[in-house]
Every structure is written in C-alpha cells, then in structure tokens.
Amino acid sequence: MKGKFIVFEGIDGSGKTTQINELSKWLMETDLIPEKNQLVITREPGGTELGKSIRSLLLDTSKEKSPDSITELLLYAADRSEHVNKIIRPTLNKGDWVISDRFCGSTVAYQGYGRKLDIKLIKDLETIATEGISPDITFLLDIPVEESIKRRINRKDDRIEQEGREFLSNVCLGFEELCEDSRWKKISAINSIKNIKSEIQSEIKKLIKNE
Ligand code: ADP
Ligand code: TYD
C-alpha cells in the first residue's frame, strides 16, 4: 500500500513551517495514518545528507560562490533526485506518509518565473529527478510579497531571499499559474494560523474520503 505525499509551497515567510508543524501534530492525533505506518517530515533543498551539503552551496550568500542560474537549476534538480530516491519513494512504498516543505513547484516558480529559465528544460529535469513520483495534494500558502517581507523582518535572508521584491512577485505569479493544477489547493496565508490549519485539515479529510 502506498502512503500519502503532501507538499507545501509558497514564498519564504508564507507560513509553511508553521502549518507543517500544525498538520503533523494533528495527523498524529487522528487515525488517518494507519497505526503501523509513520509520518516523515522533510524538505527541499536539504532533505537528505547529500542534500544538506547541496543546500548550503545553494543558499550561501558569499558573492564568489554565487552559481550561474543553470548551475543553480541543476543543483536543485540533483537535490530532488537524491531526495526522491533516498527518502520520498522508499517512504511512500512502505505506506508511510511524507510531508515535504517545497517540491517541483518551487523550481518552476523560482527558476522558471523568477530567473526566467526555460520551463520545458525545468520540466524535463523534473521528469528525470522524480521518475513519476508526484504529490497527492499540494498546498499553496498564498501571501502578498510585502506581508512575507514583514514576517521575515527578524530573519537573516539567504541568497534567494536577497533577490528582492520584483523577483518575488514573479515567483508568486509562477505559483498562481501552477495552482491551476487540480491537485493544488490555494490557501490565503494572511488568515489566522488557526483558520489556515482548519482549512488544511478539511482538505486532507476530503483527500482520504475521495480515494
Ligand atoms: P516559511 O516556513 O514559509 O518561511 P514560517 O512558518 O517560518 O514560514 O513563518 C514565518 C513567520 O510568520 C514566523 O514568524 C511565523 O510565526 C509567522 N506566521 C506564520 N503563519 C502566520 C499567520 N497565519 N499569521 C501571522 N503570522 C504567521
Ligand atoms: P526554504 O528553506 O524553504 O526557505 P524558507 O524556509 O525561507 O521558505 O528554501 C530555501 C530557498 O530555496 C527558498 O528561497 C526557495 C529556494 N528554492 C528554489 O529557488 N528552487 C527550488 O526548486 C527550491 C526547492 C527552493
């Protein structure tokens, strides 16, 4: 039996970490996950041991180490291939559930709409890295760029976060377009943590009911 694969997407500061914590707490209290199975929380970039090294290369803020945009794309693809093969696929095959903070949608939004790289190239790399693994449901935490910047005010920006407002607005546009996929649920991230949490819970219940 195959487990469920849940993904959270959204710009930095949209509340992904907060909602992943809330959802995992709630899932542990319900009987939606069979008793013999587990819940694995992971993320991209950096969900594997090798991925942690790739993450630090990708988010390093020193100018000399800043990658060319194709190099950046290939590093995200390498991180994803390792993540799918070492964590996501084996976990789902055991019937365990996976929640991932970001997946392929982030590459389309950041490298495609943000960096303006060719979407066909991004999709081809996605096919190579995922080998057919796709989320059962993706939540987009939708937040205005200004609000996300306010929420990150006390946090040190990583290299991607330093790109600025225009870049982030393009990324948001990318996420909007991806939301046309029926397995994506757009959630307004400016609601209260409690309301967002309930909306997510009801979508998960629907997912299980319709299987
Ligand atoms: P992300 O993982 O997407 O970067 P976080 O979950 O770390 O986002 O949230 C960024 C900041 O915003 C944190 O300080 C968090 O407490 C706060 N936050 C998260 N969700 C909400 C919300 N619905 N309303 C107000 N503040 C929020
Ligand atoms: P993340 O750790 O999720 O940042 P945060 O917790 O602040 O939301 O992601 C690190 C950065 O990597 C983030 O700015 C988005 C970027 N990213 C891409 O540009 N492309 C990708 O394919 C992925 C997965 C992330």
Question: How is this structure best described in words?
Answer:
- By secondary structure, the protein is α/β, with parallel strands linked by helices.
- It has one domain (5-209): Rossmann fold (3-Layer(aba) Sandwich), CATH 3.40.50.300.
- It contains 8 helices and 5 strands, in the order E-H-E-H-H-E-H-H-E-H-H-E-H.
- The protein has helices at 16-29, 49-59, 69-93, 104-114, 119-130, 145-151, 165-178, 193-209; strands at residues 5-9, 39-43, 97-101, 137-142, 184-188.
- A 5-stranded parallel β-sheet has the order 2-3-1-4-5, sandwiched between helices.
- Helix 1 (16-29) packs across helix 8, helix 2 (49-59) packs antiparallel against helix 3 (69-93) and helix 3 (69-93) packs parallel to helix 5.
- The protein starts with a strand and ends with a helix.
- Thymidine-5'-diphosphate binds next to helix 4.
Short description:
The chain contains 8 helices and 5 strands, in the order E-H-E-H-H-E-H-H-E-H-H-E-H.
CATH class: Alpha Beta
Number of helices: 8
CATH architecture: 3-Layer(aba) Sandwich
- How many structural units, i.e. domains? 1
Major β-sheet profile: 5 strands, parallel
Strand segment count: 5
Question: How much helical structure, as a percent, in the residues?
Answer: 40-55%
The unreliable regions are: none
* Bound ligands, named by name, code or SMILES: adenosine-5'-diphosphate, thymidine-5'-diphosphate
Q: What would you report as the Rg, rounded to the nearest angstrom?
A: 17 Å
CATH topology grouping = Rossmann fold
What is the straight-line distance between the termini? 13 Å
Strand order of the largest sheet: 2-3-1-4-5
Derived structural class: alpha/beta
**What proportion of the residues form beta strands (DSSP E)?**
5-15%
- What would CATH call the homologous superfamily? P-loop containing nucleotide triphosphate hydrolases
Report mean pLDDT, rounded to a whole number: 95
* Overall spatial form: globular
